[in-house]
Amino acid sequence: MKRYLTGIKPTGIPHIGNYFGAIKPAIEFSNSADNEAYYFIADYHALTSLQTGKELVDYTYELASTWLACGLDPNKVVFYKQSDVPETFELNWILCNVTPKGLMNRAHAYKAIVEKNAEAGVTADEGINMGLYNYPILMAADILLVDSDYVPVGLDQKQHIEIARDIAHNFNIKYGNILKSPMEHIEKEVATLEGLDGRKMSKSYGNIIPLFCDEKTLQKTINRIVTDSSLPTDPKPLDCTINKLYKLFATEEEIKAFEKRLSSGIGWGDAKKALFEVMNRFITPMREKYNYYMSHRSEVDEILRAGAEKARRVARKTLDRVRKAIGCK
Ligand code: ADP
Ligand code: TRP
């Protein structure tokens, strides 16, 4: 049995990049009988970027409903909220004491802000709180707490898993072989999905296609995909954003037919309509489930509560081992 663990922060509306890049592959792992899956909502990590409590509540339900609508089966996955597993935060503190400050100085996310500050001519630590600085240690606690074997993440998170390994190693050197060393799992085939403007689809770029908006909003969002000013009769490149997205939702035959239309000339408006049709067809059954969970919050609460209970049982064992090793019985 291999144990897979991953977390997503509730910091915005889940988009189709999140679905293909993270949620879909994670659900596939959880369906294999050889794997155990621990998937959680990294709500305390989200505190570094959210402004209000209401935002955290809303985004948490949106993310939980998304996972469930996309097919996460709570009987196969231990599905929980990070903040419901307080053992995480106890381990976090212990791990702080085997983490060199220099290791945090080298973390990409922190370094990027320091560099931006330098460019802007402000002090290096402008806008950086300790939550952001210690972010990788909390992430190591999430991972090490349940003895994870594999952590499925996007390439941008690779360094965080390496840091978790370093922290586990430091702890084990000092206290014996207590913590399991995790490996990142990065899907090679999962390309980075493009957003409306052709850049990586990301909440931070405001170029997303939400997974679960209503049909009208979906159509309107698709209409905002940036295209060139070629005439309807001009052939369109097969590597355009519209075709890349179309291929994710259409059948082989539909793809062939659509590519023929693109090559022989089609108006962008018609191409967008075709994309809407296949995307909406794919999303409709999931959207119904999503709307169901969004209007049945107590069911979601119950699923997350039961998940946290299971996660805590495993967490407790790790923490007992750790506490004993450090001399806290
Ligand atoms: P965002 O960039 O919108 O803030 P997150 O950083 O919250 O997204 O990502 C959550 C998960 O979704 C991560 O595993 C990440 O690798 C994946 N993901 C995000 N955007 C994309 C994308 N455009 N294509 C593929 N996967 C993505
Ligand atoms: N840092 C991750 C992200 O931004 C979210 C996350 C928090 C995570 N804890 C984790 C991912 C543990 C994997 C394992 O996407």
Description:
With 329 residues, the chain is mainly alpha-helical. The two termini are 30 Å apart. 56% of the residues lie in helices and 8% in strands. The radius of gyration is 22 Å and the shape is globular. The chain has a 3-stranded parallel β-sheet with strand order 1-2-3. Strands 4-5 form a two-stranded parallel ribbon. Helix 3 packs across helix 13 and helix 4 runs parallel beside helix 14. The model has no long low-confidence stretch (mean pLDDT 96). The structure holds adenosine-5'-diphosphate and tryptophan. Adenosine-5'-diphosphate binds at residues 8-9, 17-18, 20-22, 153-154, 192-193, 200-204. Tryptophan (TRP) binds at residues 5-9, 42, 45, 139, 142-143, 151, 153, 157, 160.
Gyration radius over CA: 22 Å
Tally of DSSP helical segments: 14
Fraction of helical residues: 55-70%
Neighbour order of strands in the largest sheet:
1-2-3
Query: Which percent range describes the beta-strand content?
Result: 5-15%
General shape: globular
Bound molecules: adenosine-5'-diphosphate, tryptophan
Give the strand tally: 5
Whole-number mean pLDDT? 96
The parts where pLDDT drops under 50 for at least 5 residues are: none
Order of helices and strands: EHEHHEHHHHHEHEHHHHH
List the helices and strands and how they pair.
Blueprint: E1 2-8, H1 16-30, E2 35-41, H2 43-46, H3 53-69, E3 77-81, H4 87-96, H5 101-105, H6 108-120, H7 130-133, H8 135-145, E4 150-152, H9 158-175, E5 183-185, H10 215-223, H11 241-249, H12 252-264, H13 268-294, H14 297-326
Parallel strand pairs: 1-2, 2-3, 4-5
The structure holds adenosine-5'-diphosphate (ADP) and tryptophan.
